[in-house]
Amino acid sequence: MTDEQLVSAIVVKKDSALFEILYDRFSKRIYNKCYSFVNDEDEAKDLTQDIFLKLFVKLSSFKGDSKFSTWVYSFTYNHCVNYLSRSKVKKYEKRFPEFYDAADLTEESYSNQDLVDKLNYGLSMISAEDKSILLLKYQNDLSIKNIEEVMGLGTSAVKMRIKRAKEKLVNTCALV
């Protein structure tokens, strides 16, 4: 049974057993997306549960204009952005370790872990929207067209946002 057929059956029958199948198919992907926003296992689990509760209620709003997986991805993305926007303090910023003083490091002394730490720090310092579009493009390997669907933007807007987000990330990392 395809995702779309499963959704239709859930909407018609209101069968929680069918919803469990949907949960099994998407829970790991949704959790991973949530974790990419908050960098905390417990918080990501809570967000995942919140998303599935909302999905059960809003499942009938899926119209089939796109693949269900794209719709769920968009739903998850929007929920996480809204969650972070509502937070008064960026909860994920405190989860990163202290970093070396940049003055003490030469280019040759950077290990791969140093670069990963620097990148993670840079990602934690830019806005949730900038972080999200970069993760959609480079971590999740979504095409510009798929990012358009997820974010509800046009091609040029997606390309410009990616360009600006990369510039912000590079500038932020340069300060570390």
TrEMBL record:
<feature type="domain" description="RNA polymerase sigma factor 70 region 4 type 2">
    <location>
        <begin position="124"/>
        <end position="169"/>
    </location>
</feature>
<keyword id="KW-0804">Transcription</keyword>
<dbReference type="InterPro" id="IPR036388">
    <property type="entry name" value="WH-like_DNA-bd_sf"/>
</dbReference>
<dbReference type="InterPro" id="IPR014284">
    <property type="entry name" value="RNA_pol_sigma-70_dom"/>
</dbReference>
<dbReference type="InterPro" id="IPR007627">
    <property type="entry name" value="RNA_pol_sigma70_r2"/>
</dbReference>
<dbReference type="InterPro" id="IPR013249">
    <property type="entry name" value="RNA_pol_sigma70_r4_t2"/>
</dbReference>
<keyword id="KW-0238">DNA-binding</keyword>
<dbReference type="Pfam" id="PF04542">
    <property type="entry name" value="Sigma70_r2"/>
</dbReference>
<keyword id="KW-0731">Sigma factor</keyword>
<dbReference type="InterPro" id="IPR039425">
    <property type="entry name" value="RNA_pol_sigma-70-like"/>
</dbReference>
<dbReference type="GO" id="GO:0003677">
    <property type="term" value="F:DNA binding"/>
</dbReference>
<keyword id="KW-0805">Transcription regulation</keyword>
<protein>
    <submittedName>
        <fullName>RNA polymerase sigma-70 factor, ECF subfamily</fullName>
    </submittedName>
</protein>
<dbReference type="GO" id="GO:0006352">
    <property type="term" value="P:DNA-templated transcription initiation"/>
</dbReference>
<dbReference type="InterPro" id="IPR013324">
    <property type="entry name" value="RNA_pol_sigma_r3/r4-like"/>
</dbReference>
<dbReference type="Pfam" id="PF08281">
    <property type="entry name" value="Sigma70_r4_2"/>
</dbReference>
<feature type="domain" description="RNA polymerase sigma-70 region 2">
    <location>
        <begin position="22"/>
        <end position="87"/>
    </location>
</feature>
<comment type="similarity">
    <text>Belongs to the sigma-70 factor family. ECF subfamily.</text>
</comment>
<dbReference type="GO" id="GO:0016987">
    <property type="term" value="F:sigma factor activity"/>
</dbReference>
<dbReference type="InterPro" id="IPR013325">
    <property type="entry name" value="RNA_pol_sigma_r2"/>
</dbReference>
